[in-house]
Amino acid sequence: MIAHTSEIPYFGEHTQLTILCPSCGWKHTDFIPAEGKKPGAFSLEIEGIEMLSVRIIRSSSCTIKIEELGLEVEPGGATTGYVSNIEGVLNRFQGAVEMMYRQAKTSNEKETIGKCEALLEKINLVKNGNLMVEITLLDPMGHSQILHENAVSRELTERELEELEVGPSIPIFSPEDVK
Questions:
Q1: Does the pLDDT of residue 140 top 70, yes or no?
Q2: How far apart are CA 118 and CA 113, in angstroms?
Q3: CA 84, CA 102: separation in Å to the nearest integer?
Q4: Strand-by-strand arrangement of the 145-147 sheet
Q5: What is the pLDDT of residue 68?
Q6: What confidence tier does 172 reach under pLDDT thresholds 50, 70, 90?
Q7: What is the side-by-side strand order in the sheet with 12-20?
Q8: Which domains does the chain have, with CATH numbers?
Q9: Do 65 and 42 touch, CB atoms closer than 8 A?
Q10: CA separation for the pair 27, 81 (Å, rounded)
Q11: Which pLDDT does position 15 carry in this prediction?
Q12: Dihedral in degrees, nearest 10, Cα atoms 152, 127, 30, 38
C-alpha cells in the first residue's frame, strides 16, 4: 500500500491511496479528501478548444456523463480514481469506442461500425472546438470535481443517490486469509 498526501490546487489536501498485489497484479488507486465531502455533482459546458485543459478529479465512485454524445461511464469493480483534464476524459471515451469499432469490424457488424464512426467523429468535433457539450460528474462519495470557475456544483437528488453505482470496494483480508 502506498499513501501520498498532497495539496491539489483549488481542491484541497488529498491522500492518493494505491494498493498493489505483487502476486496477482491487482491494483486500486483512489483520491480521498482530507475533509469530509457531501455527495455531489459537477457540470461544465465545453464551449471550445481552450476548455480541453480544464482539470478533472475523478474518484473511483464517480459516474461521468456527456449526454449530447450518449456517453456514460459508471464505476465498476476495477475502477480507479485519476486526475486528468477534459481532453484526457474524451480520450478515454474515444479509446473505448475505438475498441468497440475494431471488434465490430472483425465481426462485420455494419450497424455498430456506423454508430462508432459517427461517435468518433462527434468526439473529434468536441476536441477541435466545433461541438459544444456538457460534461457531468456524479459522485455519491463527493470526492470528484471539475476545477473551473464556470463549473456548476449541486447536491445529488435522492433518486440519483439510489441509482448511482458507488464503485469498487477494497477487499479486507484477515491474517488467516494471507498465506
A1: yes
A2: 9
A3: 26
A4: 82-85, 55-58, 145-147
A5: 96
A6: very low
A7: 2-8, 12-20, 27-33
A8: 36-163 (2.60.120.1040)
A9: no
A10: 11
A11: 79
A12: 10
| Helices 110-127 and 86-107: angle between axes, nearest 10 degrees | 160
Total residues found in the chain within this entry: 179
Rounded to whole angstroms, the Cα distance separating 62 from 84 reads 14
Q: Give CA–CA dist 97/92, Å, rounded.
A: 9
C-alpha 79/C-alpha 75 separation (Å) is: 5
Single pTM value for the model? 0.77
Q: Which amino acid is at 34?
A: A
* SS3 at position 96: helix
Specify the amino acid at residue 63.
T
**2 near 20, Cβ under 8 Å?**
yes
